[in-house]
């Protein structure tokens, strides 16, 4: 039976783990989900896994209750047989009545204890299943074991050699990434690796960090096989900046300090200055103590990247690995950071992976990689002279700016130009940085916000309301619980009957009465099995469906909230996932099988009191006098269990989610122990609180249990006095006393429910706070015009402040008209409000309107009148950081048309437009290839192209491009940019483009320069260049970087 129960538990756990994985993935990509109307699809995905878990839970409940009923029934059968055989032995002179009474009494209380302990078997079995998984992970010896001590090189010079390295990813062994790859990087040398997306460039960076070992060949560092080095020490010598920067929940200082855990504040600020982050950090509400939400929420892409660079530089690494380190930066920031990185390269080995060739021209050696093989190598001049692959890439890159270079070269010394550029560069940051992040003192805000909830919610009432669809199951479950309670009440009467039978002088009559009593006990056993099994089935269905329904409703309620709600610290993905996974199951503590047990106990206690009063009211009154004390002890036990421990569990789950979701960054920084210690500290707080609660609980429980013994002693004393009084039957006194004993014993069971009941009530407060919250902006509230969007977009005096930073204006009277079919680019420094405009168009937020005519208009209709889902259906969105879901490439592209069922031809057509078809067809499973969590099985450029295909699939009337080509190599960027330019030139759609690289927006019809949330210039690109204003200064800076 234990094996079968474990089998069900394992399958149920796997199903819930999949559901939790879906929830975590969705909540971490919430803007993508909303942009493509994926809420319903994700609800269906989530509920599918919940349905599987529910069915397994019901089966497990039936099996468990059947065994529990048989266990209880077996006690009745044993007592019946023992009593019958005891009478036979007494009549034969082989035993005395006292001996039989003692044996039966021991069996009753032993069986009762066995039944109570068996009810905990389910928890014990679940613990065994969990322990098996936990210890499987703990005991697993990874192929690359960080715990294994290795060689430490005293003076690391930084020489890196790849010798005949072959590599394929473990999940895609039939795809060769590197083939007989040979590379030598001398100490202090700067080597750049360029090539098309998917060529293996980033794989080289991962192999140097030893995230993987090559399948063949070897990698040496200072002539030592990398596999022989102490891995923890080696990673501490590396400084890594990846293409998609990962920041953790905490202050700016804490994030930079993750690069060097013992860093002083002076070192932190020095690193920030070196990365170009110091200026904007100092303009944040609390400077370096400003809190950053999980994932860097509230910071622009460039700001996140600069903090990540500071984190890498603070450790003064001997080897610096830069994987598209400046791809997310605007022109000015890139120039500053590029200069900082050039200074940082002095005296250390540097490996650069880049798509933008302007960032690698000064490298000592440039390696051109294609298909996992080095095709060309040399410095920039040598490779250009070779007139090969690299020269071709350079020419294509130069073609984009060749027309502008001549004009600007003459005017670089123009004083007016210099003054304008100085104004844009120096004054442009005065206000925008202050808007970037909401300030919080510490992560404890999350705890205080959640734990201070005080809505008056009736836990049982709300749970039963949620369980209303299962009222038939609940009614039958309650009836079966009442039947079991009555059976438990009848048993003391039958037990007392034994004493009466023992006093019968007629041995034959004594045997006949014994047989009748034994048969009655057997009948009770049958009813017990039937009632427990059927009642367990009914309550199992009710409990499992309650859990499924509550999880489903909560997930739906979360996805129905407006985007701004997710900006709040207490609504971070890890915390919300923790509530779904850990708090919802607590509801079964006041429903399902637990409700059945409580009702059964209540019926027994009430029935016992009635029986006791009927047969001896004197003994009943004595016992009843102890009940208030026992109830007070139970109430005190419940009071001991507050929500603090539960909230700490949720925070611990949030920390674990954040850490494991960003495992590569954690490994790269070598801060596994840091996060383990943080988790251990959280666990220690929980443990101390739990130990305190358990200690008090145990003392009170011991006192309550000892009170029952005092109660028994008092009842015995009264019974002794009553025995001396004429008219009292010994059997009646026994009936009354036995009934009281059973009732008192089950009071202890009720007290044992106190902690779980309290936990359920705390969980319900958190759950219903979300369920009952009315979203400020519902996706389907508003008009759904029958005629689609024609493409005319107007911004009228748009003002906006983020909900979590209401004191900081982001847009100030932004006014602009985008005619149908035109392409408009929004440019400016990081944080000036460009991406905010795109979010407002998607109606992630509503503008702060001072007048009813203020706002954003689509075809002359204020978007506040339009349903957000209708608006988003007209849009195609490509964001700076592509968010792909853990599904196939085909499903990810089809995500662009969640409200339809696109054909395979449509999907392939969109992939071709995005220049994704060719690399997809090279994959073993083509369009059915699973992209992995967060698209981890694809390179950055490949992910971005899939994201572009997803947007183009819907053939949108309004295309929103937020750095859509930032992650692409030059060749892919050229092809994709051509496709996007063609899409814009057709005149069939309106396009809003946000870009740092101005060369990507030169073909737009209009350029709007934003500064501090205001429009400072607008017009055609040529006109703005002639004006020699803000755009001219930005453009010159961009071209200078390319020239350098």
TrEMBL record:
Biased composition (Acidic residues): 400-417
Principal subcellular localisation of the protein: membrane
Cited CDD domains: ABC_6TM_Pgp_ABCB1_D2_like, ABC_MTABC3_MDL1_MDL2
GO molecular function list: ABC-type oligopeptide transporter activity; ATP binding; ATP hydrolysis activity
Entry's transmembrane regions: 62-88, 100-118, 472-495, 515-542, 603-636
Disordered: region residues: 400-426
One GO cellular component term: mitochondrial inner membrane
GO biological process, one term: oligopeptide export from mitochondrion
Residues of the ABC transporter domain: 160-396, 793-1037
Residue span, ABC transmembrane type-1 domain: 1-126, 475-759
Residue stretches in coiled coil: none
Alphabetically ordered keywords of this record: ATP-binding, Glycoprotein, Membrane, Nucleotide-binding, Repeat, Translocase, Transmembrane, Transmembrane helix, Transport
Origin: domain of life: Eukaryota
Membrane topology, as annotated: Multi-pass membrane protein
Matches recorded under Pfam families: ABC_membrane (PF00664), ABC_tran (PF00005)
InterPro entries: AAA+_ATPase, ABC1_TM_dom, ABC1_TM_sf, ABC_transporter-like_ATP-bd, ABC_transporter-like_CS, P-loop_NTPase, Type_1_exporter
Localization in the cell: Membrane
Family the entry assigns: Belongs to the ABC transporter superfamily. ABCB family. Multidrug resistance exporter (TC 3.A.1.201) subfamily.
Protein name: Multidrug resistance protein 1
Organism, as annotated: Schistocephalus solidus
């Amino acid at each position: 039976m234990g094996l079968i129960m474990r089998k069900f538990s394992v399958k149920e756990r796997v199903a819930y783990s999949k559901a939790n994985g879906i929830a975590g993935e969705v909540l971490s990509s919430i803007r993508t989900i909303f942009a493509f109307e994926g809420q319903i699809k994700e609800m269906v995905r989530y509920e599918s896994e919940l349905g599987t878990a529910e069915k397994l839970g019901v089966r497990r409940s039936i099996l468990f209750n059947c065994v529990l009923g048989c266990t209880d029934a077996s006690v009745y059968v044993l007592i019946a047989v023992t009593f019958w055989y005891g009478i036979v032995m007494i009549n034969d002179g082989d035993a005395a009545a006292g001996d039989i009474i003692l044996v039966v009494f021991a069996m009753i209380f032993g069986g009762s204890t066995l039944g109570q302990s068996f009810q905990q078997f389910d928890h014990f079995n679940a613990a065994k299943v969990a322990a098996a998984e936990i210890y499987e992970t703990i005991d697993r010896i990874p192929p690359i074991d960080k715990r294994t001590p290795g060689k430490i090189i005293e003076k690391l010079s930084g020489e890196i050699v790849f010798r005949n390295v072959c590599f394929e990813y473990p999940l895609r062994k039939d795809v060769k990434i590197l083939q007989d790859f040979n590379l030598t990087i001398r100490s202090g040398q700067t080597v750049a690796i360029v090539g098309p997306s998917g060529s293996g460039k980033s794989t080289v960076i991962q192999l140097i960090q030893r995230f993987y070992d090559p399948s063949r060949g070897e990698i040496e560092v200072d002539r030592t096989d990398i596999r022989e080095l102490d891995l923890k020490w080696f990673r501490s010598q590396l400084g890594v900046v990846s293409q998609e920067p990962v920041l953790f929940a905490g202050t700016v200082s804490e994030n930079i300090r993750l690069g060097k855990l013992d860093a002083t504040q002076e070192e932190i600020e020095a690193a920030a200055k070196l990365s170009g982050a110091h200026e904007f950090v100092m303009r944040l509400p609390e400077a370096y103590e400003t809190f950053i939400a999980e994932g860097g929420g509230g910071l622009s892409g460039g700001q996140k990247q600069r903090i990540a660079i500071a984190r890498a530089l603070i450790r003064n690494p001997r080897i610096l690995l830069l994987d598209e380190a400046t791809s997310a930066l605007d022109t000015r920031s890139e120039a500053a950071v590029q200069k900082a990185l050039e200074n940082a390269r002095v005296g250390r080995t540097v490996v650069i992976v880049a798509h933008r060739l302007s960032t690698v021209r000064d490298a000592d050696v440039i390696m051109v990689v294609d298909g996992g093989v080095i095709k060309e190598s040399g410095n920039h001049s040598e490779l250009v002279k070779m007139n090969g692959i690299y020269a071709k890439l350079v020419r294509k890159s130069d073609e984009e700016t060749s027309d502008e270079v001549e004009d600007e070269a003459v005017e670089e010394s123009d004083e007016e130009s210099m003054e304008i550029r100085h104004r844009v560069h120096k004054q442009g940051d005065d206000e925008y940085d202050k808007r970037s992040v909401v300030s919080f003192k510490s992560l404890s805000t999350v705890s205080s916000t959640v734990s201070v909830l005080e809505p008056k919610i009736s836990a049982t009432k709300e749970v039963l309301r949620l369980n209303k669809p299962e009222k038939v199951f609940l009614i039958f479950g309650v009836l079966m619980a009442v039947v079991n309670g009555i059976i438990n009440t009848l048993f003391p009467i039958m037990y007392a009957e034994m004493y009466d039978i023992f006093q019968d002088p007629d041995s034959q009559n004594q045997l006949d009465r014994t047989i009748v009593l034994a048969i009655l006990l057997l009948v009770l056993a049958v009813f017990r099995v039937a009632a427990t099994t059927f009642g367990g089935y009914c309550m199992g269905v009710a409990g499992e469906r309650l859990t499924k329904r509550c999880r489903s409703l909560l997930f739906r309620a979360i996805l129905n909230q407006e985007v701004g709600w997710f900006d709040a610290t207490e609504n971070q993905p890890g915390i919300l996932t923790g509530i779904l996974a850990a708090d919802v199951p607590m509801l079964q503590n006041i429903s399902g099988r637990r409700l059945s047990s409580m009702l059964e106990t209540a019926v027994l206690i009430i029935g016992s009191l009635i029986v006791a009063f009927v047969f001896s009211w004197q003994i009943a009154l004595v016992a009843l006098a102890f009940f208030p004390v026992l109830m007070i002890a139970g109430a005190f036990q419940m009071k001991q269990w507050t929500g603090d421990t539960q909230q700490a569990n949720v925070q611990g789950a949030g920390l674990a989610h954040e850490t494991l979701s960003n495992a590569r960054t954690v490994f790269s920084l070598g801060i596994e122990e840091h996060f383990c210690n943080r988790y251990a500290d959280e666990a220690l707080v929980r443990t101390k609180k739990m130990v305190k609660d358990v200690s008090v609980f145990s003392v009170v429980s011991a006192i309550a249990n000892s009170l029952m013994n005092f109660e028994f002693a008092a009842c015995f004393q009264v019974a002794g006095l009553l025995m001396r009084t004429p008219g009292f039957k010994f059997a009646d006194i026994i009936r009354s006393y036995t009934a009281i004993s059973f009732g008192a014993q089950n009071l202890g069971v009720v007290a044992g429910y106190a902690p779980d009941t309290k936990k359920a009530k705390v969980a319900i407060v958190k759950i219903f706070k979300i369920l009952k919250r009315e979203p400020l902006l519902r996706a389907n509230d508003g008009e759904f015009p029958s005629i689609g969007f024609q493409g005319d977009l107007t911004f009228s005096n748009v003002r906006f402040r983020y909900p979590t930073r209401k004191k900081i204006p982001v847009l100030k009277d932004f006014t602009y008209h985008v005619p149908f079919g035109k392409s408009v680019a929004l440019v400016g420094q990081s944080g000036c409000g460009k991406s905010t405009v795109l979010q407002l168009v998607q109606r992630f937020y509503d503008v702060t309107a001072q007048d009813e005519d203020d706002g954003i208009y689509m075809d002359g209709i204020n978007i506040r009148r339009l349903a957000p889902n209708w608006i988003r259906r007209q849009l195609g969105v490509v964001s700076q950081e592509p968010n792909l879901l853990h599904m196939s490439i085909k499903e990810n592209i089809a995500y662009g048309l969640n409200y339809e069922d696109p054909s395979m031809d449509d999907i392939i057509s969109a992939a071709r437009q995005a220049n994704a078809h060719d690399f997809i067809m090279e994959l073993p499973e083509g369009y059915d290839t699973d992209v992995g969590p967060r698209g981890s099985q694809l390179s950055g450029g490949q992910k971005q192209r899939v994201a572009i295909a997803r947007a183009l699939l819907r053939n949108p009337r309004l295309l929103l491009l937020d750095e859509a080509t930032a992650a692409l190599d030059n060749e892919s960027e050229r092809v994709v940019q051509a496709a996007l330019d063609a899409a814009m030139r057709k005149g069939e759609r309106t396009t809003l483009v946000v870009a740092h690289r101005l060369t990507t927006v030169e073909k737009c019809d209009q350029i709007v320069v934003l500064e501090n949330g205001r429009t400072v210039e607008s017009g055609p690109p040529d006109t703005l260049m002639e004006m020699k204003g803000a755009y001219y200064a930005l453009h010159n800076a961009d071209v200078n970087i390319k020239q350098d």
